[in-house]
Amino acid sequence: MNITNAQYIFDEDIENANTAIRATIDGVVMYVPLKQGNRHYAEIMRQVEEGTLTIAEPDA
Amino acid sequence: MASNSKNLAEMLNTDVTVTATDIADGAVTTAKLADDAVTPTKVTDQIIGRKNLIINGGMQVAQRGTSQANICTEGNGYYTVDRWLFAESNPTSGFDATMTQHKATEGASTHRDTGQIYSLQIDVTTAATTLTSGEYVAFDQRIEGSSLQHLQWGTSSGKSITLSFWVYSQKTGDYSLAIKSRHNNTAFYTANGERRYVTKYTINSASTWEKKTITIPADTVQPIMNDLDDVDPYLSIQFGLCGAGTRLADASSSYAADTWYYDTDNLITYTLHPDQVNLFDSTSNNFFLTGVQLEVGDTATPFENLSYGEVLTLCERYYQKITPSLSVGQIASNNMYNTFLLKNTMREAPSTTLSSGSSVLGGGWTFNAAQDDAIRVIGSGGGNANIRAIGMVMTCDAEL
Fold first, then answer.
1. DSSP category for residue B223
2. For residue B330, is it left (φ>0), alpha (ψ between -120 and 50) or beta?
3. Which of B12, B207, B277, B301 has the maximal Cβ count within 10 Å?
4. Chain B: residue whose CA lies nearest to A27
5. Which residues of chain A have pLDDT under 50?
């Protein structure tokens, strides 16, 4: 998967925590849940561990 | 001799009991059985309940669309027909194809011969007569591990499986079929690779629908699921279309065809049979597939036909497309929360996309899809008094 522009989404009203990652995956903007069983999340974390992708902090 | 003895016994009015040895092989035909003589205990599990482990084997559901051009350029992904994943190696030889949910016309051979209206079509649009080592193209279906526990793989009681399907191509010759078992523990998977069984079938006649049946022995080494719960394990049924070099199983190594092995080499090699033809050597070539059925045991039975609604429901565990409309006034800088229940509970919390709607105004939209049965949509006012999104299309992807 070609993954770019990964950034955490912060839910300030209900969860008060990061709840998803917004990323462009193979040219499509996707909202990816923080679940290991989700194939996009698993691939994002694999690329992060590999050092080829960085997830930006959420917007203030 | 036995029947003569029985006749004599009957004449003497003594023993008239018929034993199994009195009946010649093949003497009891289906026509001689009373309608109520066959009870469920005499029927294998194969034909009771839902027997086909493949979803959408008749190719009738295509939520993402019916045609996708230049799939080799687009890359790996789910296009057109639901549950069927296009897989490739970013080929550099320049070939390409269009993937289509093909619908047969009335009376066409697709319907007449296979009993199916729809098929998955790969139409070669740009050819390459020579492949570069390492290239491959295939498509496959990944079957969720939780649906496969009755196979008892990883034990000495493991059951074989039988795949049957209809195939059609202008390009005759040998084609690869790979069975790939993905361990559910990422660390184990990374260290040991994927369990694979690579075999082949032959398309004998050009431009003719042929039915193929392949039985795969059980993998008695690796279970499809164990207690190291990490990600969902799956079994992948992969149809090869072309491959070269290190993509081919190699009898001179530990990665030989027709035997189970661990692919420990970066998980990407040895996925095709060494006799695989190159479908992409001519733009005259197409590849059609339909009526795909995978069942327990070593016998292929007739294709299990389900209604469109039944197949769609099965597909929606992995992919859904919904069209919510949102509108709110006077939101200013506050956030608006709205929760949409999904049509069916999905395999896992899905990744979500949003297409622009027919009327979108103000703010921004984000999603919190931490659940497998609902999506929370968050509208940020961004200083706008009103925000709305009408006619937008939301997709939810929980494929394997």
1. -
2. left
3. B277
4. B74
5. none
B330: pLDDT strictly greater than 70? no
Most confident of B15-24, B83-92, B223-232: B83-92
Question: What number of CA atoms fall less than 13 Å from residue B242's CA on the CB side?
Answer: 30
**Which burial class, exposed, middle or buried, applies to A40 when counting CB atoms under 10 A from its CB (0-12, 13-18, 19+)?**
buried
Q: Report CA Rg, chain A.
A: 11
Q: What angle do CA B83, B308, B294 make, to 5 degrees?
A: 50
- CA-based nearest residue in chain B for residue A37: B231
The answer, yes or no, to whether residue B202 has pLDDT greater than 90, is yes
State percent of chain B over pLDDT 70: 82
Q: Which of A1, A13, A31 sits opposite B369 (nearest CB)?
A: A31
Q: Which residues contact B277 (CB under 8 A, 6 or more apart)?
A: B171, B172, B173, B174, B175, B242
The arithmetic mean of pLDDT across residues B184-203, rounded, is 85
Taking alpha carbons only, the member of A19, A22, A17 closest to residue A55 is: A22
A19-58 residues touching B, CB cutoff 8 A: 19-20, 22, 25-26, 28-42
* ipTM of the complex model: 0.94
- Residue B160 corresponds to which amino acid? S
Indicate whether B171 pLDDT > 60: yes
Which candidate from A29, A38, A39 shows the least CB-CB separation from B353?
Answer: A29
Confidence of residue B72 (pLDDT cuts 50, 70, 90): very high
Mean pLDDT of B273-297: 96
Query: What confidence tens digit (pLDDT) does each residue in B11-32 have?
Result: 566 666 777 777 888 888 878 8
DSSP category for residue B350: P
Which residues of B make CB contacts under 8 Å with A? 74-77, 186, 230-232, 335, 337, 347-354, 366-370, 378, 397-400
pTM above the 0.95 mark?
no
Query: Which of B74, B337, B366 has the CB atom closest to A9's CB atom?
Result: B366
Task: Using a CB–CB cutoff of 8 Å, tell me whether A17 touches chain B.
Answer: no
State the Cα–Cα distance between residues B221 and B228, nearest whole angstrom: 16
Stated as kind and residue range, the H or E segment containing B187 is helix B186-192
Q: What's the N-to-C CA distance of chain A in angstroms? A: 28
> Could you say which DSSP state residue B373 is in?
S
Q: Does A11 touch chain B (CB under 8 A)?
A: yes
Task: Scan for tokens 């395999």, then name that residue.
Answer: B347
